Amino acid sequence: MPRLRLICLTLFAACFMLNAHAEEKRYISDELNAYVHSGPGNQYRIVGTVNAGEEVTLLSVNDGTNYGQVRDAKGRTVWLPLDQLSKVPSLRTRVPELELQVKNLTDKLANIDDSWNQRTAEMQRKVSSSDSVIDSLKEENQKLKDQLVNAQKTVNAVNTQLDDKKRGIIMQWFLYGGGVAGGGLLLGLLLPHLIPRRKKDRWMN
């Protein structure tokens, strides 16, 4: 009876170990093609090879012989040493992915370069446009300064003309006033001589 229990426990442990390794992805070593056997050991018949780097599915493990049962890409269920399996993807499967990553990075770098060149060109256009606007504003400012100078000259000339006219008007009024005063004085001096004196009344004689 104890022996039967021991056998059952052993079978249970074996089933547990088999299930623990069921359906796990593994990769054949990159160094060389691996020979596969019909059973869990090199004493079993060699039934073929699997290519180096090929992806296989680990179905079970024989801890006694350190062999694993795998299913390859052709659907065959065979055995081979566990030391010829790896959890890390092989170079054979990684190279296309790496090439794709390199291509994507190269495309991104090219796009970044194109984008940078485009931004640089836009900045140069903006700077050139700004320089043009600045030059135009400077030219317009200079024109306004010239117009202001000319306007000031015109105002000064007009003020000079007004001053001359004011002086002319003052002189005219001064001469007119002098003429009137002189005429009045002359008239006052001549008028008594022009008007005959009245004869004295006879009775006064």
Automatic annotation (TrEMBL):
<feature type="coiled-coil region">
    <location>
        <begin position="95"/>
        <end position="161"/>
    </location>
</feature>
<keyword id="KW-0732">Signal</keyword>
<feature type="signal peptide">
    <location>
        <begin position="1"/>
        <end position="22"/>
    </location>
</feature>
<dbReference type="GO" id="GO:0016020">
    <property type="term" value="C:membrane"/>
</dbReference>
<keyword id="KW-0175">Coiled coil</keyword>
<keyword id="KW-1133">Transmembrane helix</keyword>
<feature type="domain" description="SH3b">
    <location>
        <begin position="23"/>
        <end position="89"/>
    </location>
</feature>
<dbReference type="InterPro" id="IPR003646">
    <property type="entry name" value="SH3-like_bac-type"/>
</dbReference>
<keyword id="KW-0472">Membrane</keyword>
<keyword id="KW-0812">Transmembrane</keyword>
<protein>
    <submittedName>
        <fullName>SH3 domain protein</fullName>
    </submittedName>
</protein>
<dbReference type="Pfam" id="PF08239">
    <property type="entry name" value="SH3_3"/>
</dbReference>
<dbReference type="InterPro" id="IPR016476">
    <property type="entry name" value="SH3_dom_pro"/>
</dbReference>
<feature type="transmembrane region" description="Helical">
    <location>
        <begin position="173"/>
        <end position="195"/>
    </location>
</feature>
